[in-house]
Amino acid sequence: MRSFDYRKISDEKWDSELLGLIAAIYKEAGKQEMYLKQKPEKLEKLVEIAKIQSTKASNEIEGIVTTNTRIKQLMEEKTAPKTRDENEIAGYRDVLAIIHESFDAIPINRNYILQLHKILFSYTQNSEAGKMKNVQNYISARYPDGHTRILFTPLDPFETPEALDRICEEFNCVIGNMELEPLIAIPVFIHDFLCIHPFNDGNGRMSRLLTTLLLYRCGFFVGKYISLEEKIAKNKDLYYEALSASQVGWHEGKDDPVPFIKYLLGTVLAAYKDFEERFALVEGNPSALDSVRKAVQLKIGKFGKQDIMALCPSLSISSVEGALRKLVADGEIRREGKGKNTFYTRIE
Fold first, then answer.
1. Domain ranges of the chain
2. What is the DSSP string of 212-236?
């Protein structure tokens, strides 16, 4: 069976790109901490929006969908799930809520991972919820046209429990003894988790939930305000490419985790950059018009109403529409197209 020794990873020589990502993330994390001290109440709205976006995006990656209205109602627990997909969405919502509220009380070990997996499927009749896989599974990519492709064959079921125990022990050891940079240990753990693929179902969603959990436990809270899952969903092809590149030779211990490390750190850094932009939009108690004007200044080329709403999550759709009409009337932006094809461009 594949062996695991995370302490050896600390001896690796990392290139300037990877070290630059780590340095940039620490810089942005420091800025976020400062921002949160200044306007915690203003940023609280981002938390609820990020939860919705994370739950929606992570499930959509697996082909689990419902309408935007239904997912909002489910997230606010104003309705009960009515379909199989909504049952799975509700389970993801509950696990994410537990991580948000109790991350520091969730040890990284097999039993707790199994408990989270059981909660993920708590609204379904899945008899395998909270249990290790009992049949061989495969890592496959699902593409927009509906076809799938096998990327990797994970460990056999009989090897899985011991392997999951080992990566948890290795992660806890290097983090607890400060023997490995957390921003390297986290993607290495997630990569190994995906290669083990410990469950018959739910491995992708569990990997994204565990990414958030590990980041929180190591002091990186950007996923609380900006959805990492949404960023992964928007660049799904890059995710599969990085995962596939890092899986070559994994069973023999000859894999190169760097492509996946860089991908995940790049995603985290992009989320921190988004957080900084959104903080700038609420700084100084701006009016709806000023917030939308600031958001417009951040856009290059064509943009739509949804692009602005993503940057101004505290504003209602009517406030954004009214501000855009005002900016068009004042000659600051140009409106083109009709209906769903409407887009805007800045007038310099």
1. 17-281, 288-346
2. HHHHHHTT--GGGTS-HHHHHHHTH
CA distances from 70 to 54, 83, 87, 92, 265 (A): 15, 11, 12, 15, 32
Separation CA 308–CA 56 (nearest Å): 19
For residue 136, give the DSSP letter: -
Map tokens 């994410």 to a residue. 96
- Sequence-ordered list of residues with C-beta below 8 angstroms from that of 193, at least 6 positions apart, any chain: 164, 167, 203, 206, 207, 210
Q: Do the Cβ atoms of 284 and 294 come closer than 8 Å?
A: no
Residue 36 has pLDDT above 90, yes or no: no
Rounded to an integer, the average pLDDT of 295-301 is 91
Q: What is the C-alpha to C-alpha distance for residues 83 and 71, in angstroms, rounded to an integer?
A: 12
* pTM exceeding the 0.85 threshold for the entire prediction: yes
Burial track 178-187 (b if 16+ CB lie within 10 A, e otherwise): eebbbbbbbb
CA dist 88 and 206 (Å) reads 12
- Listed range (103-107, 117-121, 147-151, 257-261) with the worst mean pLDDT: 147-151
Query: What's the CA gap between 133 and 268, in Å, rounded?
Result: 30
Write down the CATH number for the domain with range 288-346.
1.10.10.10
Q: How far, in Å, CA of 238 to CA of 134, rounded?
A: 30
N- to C-terminal Cα separation, the chain? 62
Fold of 17-281: Fic-like fold (1.10.3290)
The token pair at 81 is 């799930």
Tell me the C-alpha distance between 340 and 253, whole Å: 50
Q: What distances in angstroms separate CA 69 from CA 45, 74, 83, 304, 314, one per listed residue?
A: 18, 9, 14, 20, 17
Q: Which one-letter amino acid corresponds to residue 246?
A: S
Q: Cα 69 from chain centroid?
A: 21
173: tokens are: 């050891």
